[in-house]
Amino acid sequence: MHDDAAEGLRVRDLVVELGFVTRADVELALEVQEELHEQGEHAHLLDVLEDLGLIDERQHDQVLLHQDMRLVLAEIPGGRRDHRPERWIVAAVVPAALIPSTLGILAAAAVLALGAVIAAGSPRRWVALGWLAAIGVPGVPPAAAAAAGATGSATGSARSRATALLRAAALTAALAPLPLLPVALTPLHYLVAAAALVAALRRWS
Amino acid sequence: MIEIAALDAVFLAAAVTLTADRRGELRWVALVPLLAAVAALAPAGAYAYLVPPVVALLATAPPVRAPAPALVLAAPAYGSLVAAVTAGAAYLAAIWLADGLDRRIEQRGVSASWRGAPARLLVIAALYAALQPVGHL
Lengths: 205, 137
Known about the structure:
By secondary structure, chain A is mainly α.
């Protein structure tokens, strides 16, 4: 199976995406799983979640069914879908919400696009890119541009990270004219819009 | 220099955290505002322009797996050490509240496309809206 297809198929992501548990629950289960592993017992994450009472048997089966369905989709040309749109949507929202100038947001979009090629999962490279953007366009906080890149490249294979970052760059650029609106937008607007966009993309795909 | 409001950064950092895979370093992330405030107090003189990127680098210095929330919290200029500590505490509280509210959402009453990340983003947005008056105090 292709590396990219593996993303979105992991049980730890699926079980959260399906709304059965929170990420904190998954972290807890992973810790328990690690403890069991140290004791020589190899337990599946779903079994650990079930033993902890966080999911029931029906949900256990549903996760496996979804995983199988996505494996099939991943093998069909053009059948692969973006299972975690929130990653690049939030990455795009961060600079748009923190930088109140069109030029600054466009600079952040350029950082995201450039970083897709040369920074990917390295936080220090993102900081360096953010700093360069701040020098080129005064008023761009280095940490804000770097944070957007780090968000978009948090997980996944190199190819899926680059894809997420390029999508984030495109969306950031699309959001650049918003500071010109007569109404001042706050992070509240961006968070609600991000939630709606994630839900819409999920429904569409 | 553009001023980023600490309250805005706290809730954006919370939103970023909720989309990250690893959340084991929240205590370190909550200390980043204090780090930024201490760095801002340092007599940097002509090298003041170096302070923001150095703070950003220090924020990612530990081997954190999800550095984005730390970078978001490094962005504002915190007015005082108290404001920085408050921002760190507010960040932890926002994550804790979002997790708690998320768990209480009746999943069967929520459409499948709104479960998980969208619901969590809306919870963060609601907390941000509710705490806006407090942020202006």
